[in-house]
Fold:
Amino acid sequence: MKFASVNQSGNLFANTPVLSHGEAFEPLLSCSQLRIERIISSADPDQQLYDQTEDEWVCLLQGTAQLWIAGVTVDLVAGDYYFIPAHTLHRVLYTTSEPQCIWLAIHLERDCATTHGDVNSISSTQSTT
Structure:
């Protein structure tokens, strides 16, 4: 497996930009079937609707957030993660400013991800909207 870009080391909580709107995406590692990135969210996230060609696993490392995923509202707190299959419509509804939301996102080419048990089992509340 050949990596297109590699950050040999770093700290996910260091050098975080302060944003007034939207999100900042920082690639950390990528290869043909895998992309890992750090995402920093402002308190005013874009309401962009995503329809991605790859599976995405996201973990909220810091802050509180609310996502809309295929008609379901998902509340996340630091430490929660969620698996979003490819072509599942989703968007960020809300993110906190204090503390600022920091995410770790792993994007996998379709059918690359395998799971053990309920991958979307988190402790936060989920409601259908």
In short: The mean pLDDT is 87.
